[in-house]
Amino acid sequence: MLFNSLGFLIFLPIVFGLYWFVFNKKFQHQNRLLLLASFYFYACWDWRFLFLLMFSIGLDYVSGIKIENSKNNNEARFWLTLSIVINLGFLGFFKYYNFFVESFADLLNSFGFTVNVWLINIILPVGISFYTFHGLSYVIDVYKKRIKAERNFTDYAVFVSYFPLLVAGPIERATHLLPQIQRKRIFNYEQAADGMRQILWGFFKKMVIADNCAPLVNDIFNNYQTENPVNLAIGAVLFAFQIYGDFSGYSDIALGVSRLFGIELLKNFSFPYFSRDIAEFWRRWHISLSSWFRDYLYIPLGGSKGGLPMKIRNTFIIFLVSGFWHGANWTFIIWGGLNALYFMPLLIMNKNRQNIEVAAQGRLLPSVKEIFQMLITFSVTCIAWIFFRAESVSQAYHYILRISSLKLYSIPHTLPVKVLALIGFMMMVEWINREQFHGLEIKRYMPWVRRFFYLAVIYIILRYASFGNNEFIYFQF
Which of 326, 398, 413, 438 is catalytic? Predict the structure, then answer.
């Protein structure tokens, strides 16, 4: 079930009404409703994969209890290892089997050996990368004694399968979400109203920005060999806004929907295209994934405690793994490696935490230096996004090669004025509210000004949105 579908617009009010008006006496009843709603929401994609989700939930639920009840560390480590191996085994089979087999065959072919490989033709279970990481973080936290194992199966199952975040995040932590599931929620009008504003902004970014950029980007990338270099550069920029509008739009809708149920999810985006260096960008882009790799991979590898060579090694590992997490293609690995290379000068000069606060904090306009820093950061990010979007490494290489032939007097074949104007409106609104929780959390202006913004966004959605039930990009991850 898509957030931007008629089915969801029917599903959400029904669940909301039952949650607050029928099952509001006890939060345990609300949790059971959320679990059933989440299973139904997931089954709408492919009911067969619901059993895989339920198996994953059961595996980690039992593993957590077994780890906590273990008589010694070896026994606890056994259950932890079992959970990790099985979870990653399923993820590897469904997502990476063909990649490894084809890569191995290509390696043998390069040495003159001809091999026939057996590939599987199977649909990737939607959201498997996200709910697998939910379960892994839980069992690791239990093993590290950061949390107690959850005995209530319904509460744990809601934590993993909670429908707003199930298929594309944010990647939640048991330490943050479980306590909210385990206590009574009281309806808060201000929280719900702001949740609706965040949902509205999410729909704007997805249906107006991402879905209007998508056909232009597809056309440019599909015909990159004959496109004008200026058009190729525009295509890279449009994809940067497509993926931002698509993924951050999903996150805004997920967080806003959850706030309707009195539950706060982790913030996943914090206006990343206003970043002044690549380190700041990764603190603001897909925050839940970046922090997951930091806590469960970077720090266990030694983090920043060792010397510079260890820091460099660990940084490359998390960026390469992050790239591989996104997809079974060398393009994603190169994308991760490229971002690691961007990160290196900051790490070596110990300047990777120099831009912690938002740009131009407390000021309306940025300085010339900040504008220059943001443009440079956005430009190198767009180059990396080309590998993320390309079908192959060869396509990305030739795409960038053709852009490099750009001349100052080159002009585009066509200029997508409407889409660029819509992107400009989005960036203006987000710049104004960059110190807030989301783009449409407008606090500094009088009520009539805020209402004008809300009505303007609604009008633009009705006027320019794509109502084709277009899937979100991150469903494939």
Answer: 326
